[in-house]
Design a protein that fits this description.
The chain is an alpha/beta fold. It has 4 domains: 20-123, Alpha-Beta Plaits (2-Layer Sandwich); 128-367 and 532-673, Rossmann fold; 370-521, Glucose Oxidase, domain 1, CATH 3.50.30; 717-810, Immunoglobulin-like. The chain has a 7-stranded parallel β-sheet, with helices on both faces. A 7-stranded mixed β-sheet has the order 16-15-23-17-18-19-20, sandwiched between helices. A 5-stranded mixed β-sheet has the order 31-38-37-33-35, with no helix packed on it.
Length: 812
């Protein structure tokens, strides 16, 4: 009877409170978190520039007690305002913000919204992943690494945190080299679990946690893939971590072929892992709990290649919970690096909105893997395919549709037969020992067809190889390089595809089953570095202009901030690879995305931090921005991929930010632009039509001050989204070089705008500052943003670039 009563009550609760209708809500409440007791960035000034690690100190004990009190107050608030059984608290956020997440119904959430002490409440919108050679490409071995304070110790002493899908602890990129033991302090907890024994935290990986309360509340997790430990079942988190901080010189071997050696940007940096994304689901609440913990653990740099890819705050993009957490991480002295998003190439697609996070766009590299298909008539067709060549000189060439079994129905009972997805549909006698032509058709466009399925078909039926050609009925397609275990090549352009199909038709007599076309697939695994224009901003990389609200009104702040390699990046992977079957069983993945670009910047930031331990996050990000280049390897302006499948256009700061990062120059930038928490407050308070009450509610303090205009925020760029007549923009630079230097100002003005810098030249002492006024005046109205730059050239060989992006809308 007692058991029946419990079950009845549980069922009653489900009926009354709508279990099926529950959602996760993120809640901020009144009262200061521990980080509020620090001055802006002071956490980073302690212990020779590092964040706080001193377990047992009086300050740490105070913060721990205060955090415990906050957690108890969250429980009390829920108990006093919501009905018993109607909710489940998932996390207490008690370090950088004061708040919690709760799983409950919309009606209960409305009650909570009205409760005394509740400041903000936001529905969880989920989180997603923004899914070797680049150290050499960026000049690290001969440049920054060469100048490392300790030989072969680039990044030593710096802790990079990764909020992502976890890590593969057995990968050689994360092995610990004990001979370099420097007594790096323990900074967190190593949470054990499936596939992740405690020994996984080995000195290279110094902390590892997983956050799953949101995932478990939202979905029925699959225990075989949603591993409840820091282990990475996806590969994404391992890829990101090794790109930033993977060990140097790790052999990249896939399918028995050695593609070279991989290295992270800062191979001696330490890694802290915060798993918050699962194959089945990702939630913002898990991500925010991970961010809170990472800052508490004292990471120097926080890498976010995950997060929401659209604004969750309709009125002000920069006051979503995600951005608020990043702001308070920045206040604690942590440099936050954020993927710009993968929704390009359209304008206003940026997913990084705030000046306190470095938004990273993605470009390609100068490396290419040229594949080729040679036809029996000697014609050579270029394509893409990381595979071995076919054996022997020639093999029979067969179109997939021509190899259907005789009794196979010609109706649509089995879809996409021309895409080589179904071994049972093909006649083994025809395709065996043949190169089979597969068509890129509807199944690939809707996601139901895949290259791994072609590989499986090829293995099952004994293909010599396969060719995936563009379907003239659908047009060109976008092809990425994948390591293939059978010979294969992708031919994504219709014009090339037509050459193959025309040749095939001329040598095929279907009535007599005479397939006389011949072909061979060339070696596609050997990289070339010649005749490849680079960098080019990738098509998928999200673009500016930055915007202030969901209606996409532009804002006076440049986004993305900077450009880094993010296309076809070799790095560590997880053999489970549950979301990318084509990489299953591999320890390395060749992957693309702004997710891959962000850790390049995080690793380079670690190198700058190592060399300049007292620098604030804004100084580090400024150093990278003002020294970036806007020219490619041919000395021409950077180009960007656009809407046309293979078309290029001149890149602008809304595509590439300040330009391609240049580490060797970033470690010695000459001048830097500095800004801190109070500046960000003033920036928010000066936004047009700013909701001052919303800002006060979100940040816990009123708008006591504001800039004359948002454009006065001291960033290393100037963006004016609506210039009417004239405007004066103010900037301050600091000399971080060790010598007195004289700078001369030069301007490349945007079309339709006259620009003057005052003073036109100045001399600045070490650690000295100089105020600058940038006077802009409309000379001709334009229908879109125009771009230029200010260049400060020093007599000690420092060059400081400041991008200008202006929309001149009226003469006065």
């Amino acid at each position: 009877m007692a058991v029946f009563g419990v079950v009845f009550l549980l069922l009653l609760g489900r009926i009354c409170f709508g279990e099926e209708g529950r959602h996760i809500y993120l809640v901020m409440v009144e009262g200061d978190p521990p980080v509020a007791f620090l001055q802006d960035g002071s956490a980073a000034s302690l212990q020779s520039g590092k964040n706080i690690h001193p377990h047992g100190s009086s300050e740490t004990l105070f913060k721990a007690r205060h955090a415990k009190q906050l957690e108890e107050s969250h429980d009390e608030l829920l108990q006093s305002n919501l009905e018993e059984g109607s909710y489940k608290k998932l996390y207490s956020f008690n370090h950088i913000v004061n708040g919690f997440s709760v799983h409950t119904t919309p009606s209960q959430a409305n009650k909570l919204k009205k409760a005394p002490g509740v400041k903000l409440i936001e529905k969880d919108r989920g989180a997603k992943m923004m899914t070797n050679h680049t150290p050499k490409l960026l000049g690290l071995p001969q440049g920054v690494w060469h100048h490392s304070p300790i030989k072969d110790a680039a990044g030593e002493g710096i802790l990079i945190g990764f909020v992502d899908s976890g890590i593969n602890p057995l990968h050689p990129s994360f092995a610990y080299e004990y001979e370099y033991d420097d007594g790096f302090p323990k900074v967190g907890v190593c949470e054990e679990g499936p596939l992740f024994p405690k020994s996984s935290c080995n000195g290279k990986i110094v902390s590892a946690r997983f956050f799953s309360a949101g995932a478990q509340a939202t979905a029925n997790l699959n225990a075989s893939i949603d591993i409840l430990s820091p282990y990475d079942a996806v590969g994404h988190g391992s890829h990101v971590a090794s790109t930033a901080a993977g060990n140097h010189g790790v052999p990249v071997v896939v399918n028995g072929f050695n593609y070279g050696r991989a290295s992270g940007m800062a191979p001696r940096a330490r890694i802290a892992v915060y798993k918050a994304i699962y194959p089945t689901v990702g939630t913002s609440t898990d991500v925010l709990a991970a961010i809170d913990q990472a800052v508490k653990d004292g990471v120097d740099i926080l890498t976010l290649s995950i997060g929401p890819d659209e604004p969750s705050n309709k009125k002000l993009t920069m006051l979503s919970m995600f951005d608020i957490f990043m702001l308070f991480a920045r206040k604690a002295g942590v440099l936050v690096v954020q993927a710009a998003g993968n929704r390009g190439p359209g304008r206003y697609t940026i997913a990084s909105y705030s000046p306190w996070a470095v938004g990273v766009a993605a470009c390609d590299t100068d490396r290419a893997y040229p594949g080729s298909l040679v036809l029996g008539n000697g014609q050579k067709i270029d394509g893409i395919g990381l595979s071995a060549a076919t054996s022997g000189e020639w093999s029979k060439l067969v179109l997939c549709k021509d190899a259907l079994k005789g009794d196979f129905p010609t109706t649509h009972e089995l879809e996409y037969v021309e895409e080589c997805q179904h071994p049972d549909a093909l006649d083994p006698m025809i395709v065996q020992q043949s190169i089979v032509i597969c068509m890129f058709s509807a199944g690939f466009y809707n996601g139901s067809s895949s290259i791994p399925a072609i590989v499986d078909t090829a293995r099952t039926l004994g293909f010599v190889g396969f060719v995936l050609v563009a379907n003239p009925a659908y047009g060109d397609y976008i092809a990425d390089s994948y390591p293939l275990s059978v010979p294969g090549i992708m031919i994504p352009k219709v014009s090339d595809s037509q050459v193959v199909l025309d040749y095939y038709e001329k040598h095929t007599q279907r009535n007599y089953n005479a397939y006389n076309a011949r072909a061979s697939i060339g070696e596609g695994r050997v990289a070339t570095y010649e005749n490849h224009k680079s960098p080019v901003v990738t098509r998928f990389s999200s673009r500016g202009p930055n915007f202030i609200d969901v209606n996409k009104h532009p804002i006076d702040l440049l986004k993305p901030d900077i450009l880094a390699p993010g296309h076809n990046i070799w790095a560590a992977w997880s053999p489970m690879s549950v979301t990318r079957p084509i990489l299953a069983g591999y320890n390395f993945g060749l992957v693309s995305g702004t997710s891959m670009a962000a850790p390049h910047i995080a690793g380079i930031a670690a190198l700058i931090k190592q060399r300049n331990p007292s620098w604030s996050p804004s100084m580090i990000s400024s150093a990278m921005a003002t020294t970036a280049t806007t020219y490619d390897n041919r000395g021409e302006p950077i180009m960007a991929q656009g809407q046309e499948t293979y078309g290029l256009h001149l890149s602008t700061p809304f595509d590439h930010g300040a330009g391609l990062v240049s580490p060797i120059h970033a470690i010695d930038p000459g001048l830097v632009f500095m800004s801190g928490y109070e500046d960000y407050m003033n920036f928010l308070c000066s936004l047009p039509n700013a909701d001052l009450e919303m800002i006060k509610t979100a940040l816990g303090e009123p708008c006591a001050h504001s800039f004359h205009a948002p454009s006065d925020l001291n960033t290393p760029s100037v963006t004016i989204s609506s210039l009417i007549g004239s405007l004066i923009v103010r900037r301050t630079v600091k000399n971080v070089a060790n010598k007195v230097e004289m700078y001369v100002c030069a301007v490349v003005p945007p079309t339709g705008v006259a620009v003057k810098v005052n003073p036109p030249w100045f001399t600045i002492v070490p650690q000295g500052t100089q105020d600058l006024e940038v006077m802009l005046n409309v000379t001709q109205v334009q229908d879109s943003f125009r771009h230029g730059e200010i260049v400060l050239t020093g007599n000690m060989n420092h060059i400081v670039r400041i991008p200008l992006s202006v929309l001149p809308v009226a003469m006065s």
